[in-house]
Design goal:
Elements (H helix, E strand, L loop, with lengths): L2 H17 L16 H9 L4 H8 L8 H14 L3 H10 L32 H12 L4 H12 L14 H8 L4 E3 L8 E8 L1 H9 L8 E9 L15 E8 L2 E12 L5 E7 L2 E6 H14 L7 E10 L23
Antiparallel strand pairs: 1-8, 2-3, 3-8, 4-5, 4-8, 5-6, 6-7
Protein backbone atom coordinates (compact mmCIF):
# COMPACT_ATOMS: atom_id res chain seq x y z
CA UNK A 1 0.00 0.00 0.00
CA UNK A 2 1.46 3.37 -0.99
CA UNK A 3 1.73 6.25 1.42
CA UNK A 4 -0.86 8.15 -0.64
CA UNK A 5 -3.34 5.25 -0.52
CA UNK A 6 -2.72 4.74 3.18
CA UNK A 7 -3.32 8.42 3.91
CA UNK A 8 -6.58 8.43 1.94
CA UNK A 9 -7.73 5.31 3.80
CA UNK A 10 -6.85 6.86 7.14
CA UNK A 11 -8.87 10.00 6.33
CA UNK A 12 -11.82 7.88 5.20
CA UNK A 13 -11.72 5.84 8.41
CA UNK A 14 -11.46 9.00 10.48
CA UNK A 15 -14.47 10.55 8.76
CA UNK A 16 -16.40 7.31 9.11
CA UNK A 17 -15.64 7.19 12.80
CA UNK A 18 -16.72 10.83 13.20
CA UNK A 19 -19.94 10.15 11.32
CA UNK A 20 -20.86 7.47 13.80
CA UNK A 21 -20.02 9.44 16.92
CA UNK A 22 -23.11 9.56 19.16
CA UNK A 23 -24.59 13.05 19.10
CA UNK A 24 -25.72 14.67 22.34
CA UNK A 25 -29.49 14.83 22.56
CA UNK A 26 -31.23 18.01 23.71
CA UNK A 27 -32.61 17.80 27.22
CA UNK A 28 -36.42 17.91 26.99
CA UNK A 29 -38.15 20.65 28.92
CA UNK A 30 -39.93 19.42 32.05
CA UNK A 31 -43.60 18.75 31.51
CA UNK A 32 -45.89 21.54 32.66
CA UNK A 33 -48.85 20.38 34.74
CA UNK A 34 -52.05 22.45 34.95
CA UNK A 35 -52.80 24.30 38.17
CA UNK A 36 -56.04 23.94 40.08
CA UNK A 37 -57.28 27.25 38.64
CA UNK A 38 -56.43 26.16 35.11
CA UNK A 39 -58.26 22.87 35.62
CA UNK A 40 -61.28 24.75 36.93
CA UNK A 41 -61.36 26.88 33.76
CA UNK A 42 -60.99 23.75 31.66
CA UNK A 43 -64.03 22.27 33.39
CA UNK A 44 -66.07 25.38 32.58
CA UNK A 45 -65.53 24.85 28.82
CA UNK A 46 -65.76 21.05 28.91
CA UNK A 47 -62.05 20.45 28.33
CA UNK A 48 -60.76 17.21 29.93
CA UNK A 49 -57.90 17.63 32.39
CA UNK A 50 -55.66 15.20 30.49
CA UNK A 51 -56.20 17.12 27.23
CA UNK A 52 -55.38 20.44 28.87
CA UNK A 53 -52.15 18.96 30.21
CA UNK A 54 -51.15 17.92 26.70
CA UNK A 55 -52.07 21.33 25.27
CA UNK A 56 -49.95 23.18 27.80
CA UNK A 57 -46.94 21.22 26.55
CA UNK A 58 -47.64 21.57 22.83
CA UNK A 59 -47.03 24.62 20.60
CA UNK A 60 -50.00 25.94 18.65
CA UNK A 61 -48.48 24.98 15.31
CA UNK A 62 -48.60 21.29 16.28
CA UNK A 63 -52.30 21.38 17.18
CA UNK A 64 -55.11 20.15 14.96
CA UNK A 65 -57.99 22.53 14.16
CA UNK A 66 -60.52 20.93 16.54
CA UNK A 67 -57.90 20.82 19.30
CA UNK A 68 -57.01 24.48 18.73
CA UNK A 69 -60.67 25.45 18.96
CA UNK A 70 -61.00 23.87 22.40
CA UNK A 71 -57.77 25.50 23.52
CA UNK A 72 -58.98 28.95 22.42
CA UNK A 73 -62.15 28.59 24.49
CA UNK A 74 -60.03 27.76 27.55
CA UNK A 75 -57.58 30.58 26.78
CA UNK A 76 -60.41 33.15 26.94
CA UNK A 77 -60.90 32.23 30.61
CA UNK A 78 -57.23 31.65 31.38
CA UNK A 79 -56.19 35.09 30.14
CA UNK A 80 -59.14 37.53 30.03
CA UNK A 81 -56.94 40.54 29.19
CA UNK A 82 -56.76 40.82 25.39
CA UNK A 83 -53.24 42.26 25.25
CA UNK A 84 -51.82 39.58 27.51
CA UNK A 85 -53.77 36.91 25.63
CA UNK A 86 -52.20 38.04 22.34
CA UNK A 87 -48.74 37.89 23.90
CA UNK A 88 -49.39 34.43 25.35
CA UNK A 89 -50.70 33.02 22.06
CA UNK A 90 -47.88 34.59 20.06
CA UNK A 91 -45.28 33.09 22.39
CA UNK A 92 -46.96 29.69 22.14
CA UNK A 93 -46.08 29.73 18.43
CA UNK A 94 -42.37 30.45 18.90
CA UNK A 95 -40.47 27.95 16.75
CA UNK A 96 -43.19 27.71 14.09
CA UNK A 97 -41.48 27.14 10.70
CA UNK A 98 -41.44 30.09 8.29
CA UNK A 99 -42.61 29.93 4.67
CA UNK A 100 -43.04 33.03 2.50
CA UNK A 101 -46.30 33.65 0.61
CA UNK A 102 -48.00 30.92 2.59
CA UNK A 103 -51.74 31.41 2.20
CA UNK A 104 -54.06 31.74 -0.78
CA UNK A 105 -57.75 31.30 -1.56
CA UNK A 106 -57.92 27.58 -2.36
CA UNK A 107 -60.40 25.89 -2.56
CA UNK A 108 -62.61 28.99 -2.99
CA UNK A 109 -60.44 30.27 -5.85
CA UNK A 110 -57.56 28.83 -7.86
CA UNK A 111 -55.63 32.01 -8.82
CA UNK A 112 -53.47 31.41 -5.73
CA UNK A 113 -53.64 27.68 -5.09
CA UNK A 114 -52.40 27.88 -1.49
CA UNK A 115 -55.12 26.96 1.00
CA UNK A 116 -57.02 29.42 3.21
CA UNK A 117 -55.26 28.35 6.41
CA UNK A 118 -52.15 26.55 7.59
CA UNK A 119 -51.48 26.15 11.29
CA UNK A 120 -48.14 24.38 10.83
CA UNK A 121 -46.26 27.29 9.18
CA UNK A 122 -46.44 31.05 8.84
CA UNK A 123 -44.98 34.10 7.19
CA UNK A 124 -44.91 37.48 8.91
CA UNK A 125 -48.41 38.58 7.91
CA UNK A 126 -50.00 35.17 8.46
CA UNK A 127 -48.46 34.98 11.94
CA UNK A 128 -49.89 38.36 12.97
CA UNK A 129 -53.31 37.65 11.44
CA UNK A 130 -53.55 34.23 13.08
CA UNK A 131 -52.51 35.59 16.47
CA UNK A 132 -55.07 38.40 16.40
CA UNK A 133 -57.84 36.10 15.16
CA UNK A 134 -57.06 33.46 17.80
CA UNK A 135 -57.05 36.03 20.59
CA UNK A 136 -60.48 37.30 19.54
CA UNK A 137 -62.04 33.84 19.24
CA UNK A 138 -63.33 31.02 21.44
CA UNK A 139 -63.71 28.25 18.85
CA UNK A 140 -62.23 27.07 15.57
CA UNK A 141 -65.26 28.35 13.67
CA UNK A 142 -64.98 31.81 15.22
CA UNK A 143 -61.22 31.90 14.58
CA UNK A 144 -61.69 31.05 10.91
CA UNK A 145 -64.44 33.67 10.56
CA UNK A 146 -62.41 36.43 12.23
CA UNK A 147 -59.34 35.47 10.20
CA UNK A 148 -61.18 36.10 6.92
CA UNK A 149 -62.46 39.44 8.26
CA UNK A 150 -58.87 40.48 8.97
CA UNK A 151 -57.34 39.20 5.72
CA UNK A 152 -59.94 40.49 3.25
CA UNK A 153 -61.69 43.82 2.73
CA UNK A 154 -65.09 43.51 4.40
CA UNK A 155 -64.36 39.80 4.83
CA UNK A 156 -65.10 39.07 1.15
CA UNK A 157 -62.81 36.18 0.18
CA UNK A 158 -60.94 36.62 -3.08
CA UNK A 159 -57.46 37.39 -4.36
CA UNK A 160 -58.65 40.82 -5.53
CA UNK A 161 -60.08 41.71 -2.10
CA UNK A 162 -57.13 40.44 -0.06
CA UNK A 163 -55.27 43.15 1.87
CA UNK A 164 -52.09 42.91 -0.22
CA UNK A 165 -50.53 46.31 0.57
CA UNK A 166 -49.66 46.68 4.24
CA UNK A 167 -50.03 50.45 4.63
CA UNK A 168 -52.76 51.19 2.06
CA UNK A 169 -54.80 47.97 2.52
CA UNK A 170 -54.15 46.05 5.75
CA UNK A 171 -53.73 48.99 8.11
CA UNK A 172 -56.71 50.87 6.69
CA UNK A 173 -59.09 47.90 6.42
CA UNK A 174 -58.29 46.82 9.98
CA UNK A 175 -58.71 50.22 11.64
CA UNK A 176 -61.36 48.54 13.82
CA UNK A 177 -58.52 46.43 15.27
CA UNK A 178 -55.48 48.74 15.33
CA UNK A 179 -54.93 52.50 15.10
CA UNK A 180 -51.84 54.11 13.58
CA UNK A 181 -50.04 55.99 16.38
CA UNK A 182 -46.77 56.61 14.55
CA UNK A 183 -47.33 60.38 14.52
CA UNK A 184 -48.39 60.62 18.17
CA UNK A 185 -45.50 58.90 19.98
CA UNK A 186 -43.39 62.06 20.19
CA UNK A 187 -40.55 60.97 17.91
CA UNK A 188 -39.73 62.85 14.69
CA UNK A 189 -41.27 61.17 11.66
CA UNK A 190 -40.13 60.87 8.08
CA UNK A 191 -42.56 61.03 5.15
CA UNK A 192 -42.65 58.61 2.26
CA UNK A 193 -44.83 58.22 -0.81
CA UNK A 194 -46.21 55.14 -2.54
CA UNK A 195 -47.97 54.64 -5.85
CA UNK A 196 -50.43 51.78 -5.29
CA UNK A 197 -51.26 50.13 -8.62
CA UNK A 198 -53.49 47.21 -7.66
CA UNK A 199 -54.59 46.62 -11.25
CA UNK A 200 -51.00 46.08 -12.45
CA UNK A 201 -50.17 43.96 -9.40
CA UNK A 202 -53.12 41.59 -9.86
CA UNK A 203 -52.40 41.22 -13.57
CA UNK A 204 -48.70 40.52 -13.07
CA UNK A 205 -49.01 38.32 -9.99
CA UNK A 206 -52.20 36.39 -10.68
CA UNK A 207 -53.02 37.03 -14.37
CA UNK A 208 -56.44 38.48 -13.56
CA UNK A 209 -57.90 41.68 -14.94
CA UNK A 210 -59.54 44.22 -12.63
CA UNK A 211 -60.29 47.86 -13.31
CA UNK A 212 -58.81 49.65 -10.28
CA UNK A 213 -57.46 53.21 -10.40
CA UNK A 214 -53.92 53.94 -9.21
CA UNK A 215 -53.89 55.29 -5.64
CA UNK A 216 -51.27 57.81 -4.44
CA UNK A 217 -50.55 57.05 -0.77
CA UNK A 218 -48.54 59.19 1.64
CA UNK A 219 -47.36 57.93 5.02
CA UNK A 220 -44.73 58.45 7.73
CA UNK A 221 -42.41 56.29 9.82
CA UNK A 222 -40.10 56.65 12.83
CA UNK A 223 -36.45 56.31 11.81
CA UNK A 224 -34.63 53.34 13.35
CA UNK A 225 -32.28 55.58 15.39
CA UNK A 226 -35.25 57.34 17.02
CA UNK A 227 -37.08 54.23 18.22
CA UNK A 228 -35.24 53.84 21.53
CA UNK A 229 -36.68 57.14 22.78
CA UNK A 230 -40.30 56.07 22.32
CA UNK A 231 -40.36 52.29 22.62
CA UNK A 232 -41.40 52.38 26.30
CA UNK A 233 -44.78 53.67 25.10
CA UNK A 234 -45.45 50.51 23.08
CA UNK A 235 -47.85 47.94 24.48
CA UNK A 236 -48.46 44.21 24.19
CA UNK A 237 -50.36 43.41 21.02
CA UNK A 238 -49.34 46.52 19.08
CA UNK A 239 -48.76 45.96 15.37
CA UNK A 240 -45.36 46.85 13.89
CA UNK A 241 -44.63 47.70 10.24
CA UNK A 242 -40.92 47.37 9.46
CA UNK A 243 -40.09 50.01 6.83
CA UNK A 244 -37.37 49.30 4.28
CA UNK A 245 -35.93 51.63 1.70
CA UNK A 246 -34.12 51.19 -1.60
CA UNK A 247 -33.26 54.22 -3.67
CA UNK A 248 -36.25 56.55 -3.52
CA UNK A 249 -38.73 53.82 -2.57
CA UNK A 250 -39.90 53.01 0.95
CA UNK A 251 -42.45 50.38 2.00
CA UNK A 252 -43.46 47.99 4.79
CA UNK A 253 -41.40 44.89 4.05
CA UNK A 254 -42.12 43.00 7.27
CA UNK A 255 -44.56 43.01 10.20
CA UNK A 256 -44.63 41.74 13.76
CA UNK A 257 -46.18 42.15 17.20
CA UNK A 258 -44.97 43.94 20.33
CA UNK A 259 -44.65 41.96 23.55
CA UNK A 260 -43.12 43.05 26.85
CA UNK A 261 -40.23 41.16 28.40
CA UNK A 262 -39.98 40.31 32.08
CA UNK A 263 -37.38 43.09 32.35
CA UNK A 264 -39.81 45.62 30.83
CA UNK A 265 -38.05 45.69 27.46
CA UNK A 266 -40.19 45.99 24.34
CA UNK A 267 -39.71 42.99 22.14
CA UNK A 268 -40.62 42.11 18.57
CA UNK A 269 -42.34 38.75 18.16
CA UNK A 270 -42.48 37.86 14.47
CA UNK A 271 -42.23 35.17 11.83
CA UNK A 272 -39.02 35.32 9.79
CA UNK A 273 -36.60 32.82 8.30
CA UNK A 274 -36.22 30.18 9.68
CA UNK A 275 -38.98 30.34 12.34
CA UNK A 276 -41.06 32.48 14.68
CA UNK A 277 -38.81 34.27 17.16
CA UNK A 278 -38.84 36.88 19.92
CA UNK A 279 -36.11 39.50 20.21
CA UNK A 280 -35.74 42.98 21.62
CA UNK A 281 -36.51 45.83 19.27
CA UNK A 282 -32.97 47.10 19.71
CA UNK A 283 -31.61 43.62 19.07
CA UNK A 284 -33.60 43.45 15.84
CA UNK A 285 -32.28 46.87 14.77
CA UNK A 286 -28.70 45.80 15.52
CA UNK A 287 -29.15 42.54 13.60
CA UNK A 288 -30.54 44.40 10.58
CA UNK A 289 -27.62 46.86 10.76
CA UNK A 290 -25.20 43.94 10.47
CA UNK A 291 -27.17 42.56 7.52
CA UNK A 292 -27.26 45.94 5.78
CA UNK A 293 -23.50 46.35 6.26
CA UNK A 294 -22.87 42.95 4.63
CA UNK A 295 -25.16 43.88 1.71
CA UNK A 296 -23.81 47.39 1.20
CA UNK A 297 -23.52 48.27 -2.48
CA UNK A 298 -25.74 45.35 -3.62
CA UNK A 299 -28.87 47.44 -4.29
CA UNK A 300 -30.82 45.52 -1.65
CA UNK A 301 -33.42 46.97 0.74
CA UNK A 302 -32.08 48.58 3.92
CA UNK A 303 -33.87 49.00 7.25
CA UNK A 304 -35.18 52.58 7.49
CA UNK A 305 -37.52 52.53 10.49
CA UNK A 306 -40.93 51.52 11.78
CA UNK A 307 -44.62 52.33 11.84
CA UNK A 308 -46.51 51.50 15.04
CA UNK A 309 -50.21 50.69 15.27
CA UNK A 310 -51.88 50.52 18.67
CA UNK A 311 -54.17 47.59 19.41
CA UNK A 312 -57.61 49.12 20.05
CA UNK A 313 -59.27 48.65 23.41
CA UNK A 314 -62.08 46.09 23.15
CA UNK A 315 -62.09 45.85 19.33
CA UNK A 316 -65.44 44.85 17.86
CA UNK A 317 -65.26 42.72 14.72
CA UNK A 318 -67.38 44.39 12.00
CA UNK A 319 -69.92 42.26 10.16
CA UNK A 320 -68.96 40.52 6.95
CA UNK A 321 -70.15 41.91 3.63
CA UNK A 322 -72.15 39.37 1.58
CA UNK A 323 -69.95 37.00 -0.40
CA UNK A 324 -70.92 37.73 -4.05
CA UNK A 325 -71.71 34.95 -6.47
CA UNK A 326 -68.70 34.46 -8.78
CA UNK A 327 -69.13 35.89 -12.27
CA UNK A 328 -69.72 33.63 -15.27
CA UNK A 329 -67.80 33.88 -18.56
CA UNK A 330 -69.16 36.66 -20.76
CA UNK A 331 -70.41 34.14 -23.33
CA UNK A 332 -72.64 32.53 -20.71
CA UNK A 333 -73.81 35.68 -18.96
CA UNK A 334 -77.41 36.68 -19.37
Amino acid sequence: MTKKTFAALAVALLLSACAHQPQPQPIPAPRVEPTAAQLANAGRVGLPASELGDMLNKPLFKMQPAELGRFLAWQQLEQPDLRQRIAALARKNIGQPYELYLLGEFPYETYDAQQLFDLAKSDCVVFAEHTYAMALSASWEEFFWVLQRIRYRDGVIGVATRNHYTEADWNVANSWLVTDVTRTLGAPTRPYHQRIDRQAFLLKQFKIQRSIPVQPFDDVYVAKQDVAAIEAQLQDGDFVNVISTRGNDSWASHVGLIVTGTDGSRRLLHSAEPQVREETLQGFIARMAERDARQAGQNKPQLAGFKFLRLNDSPQVPPMAPQPRPARPAALAG
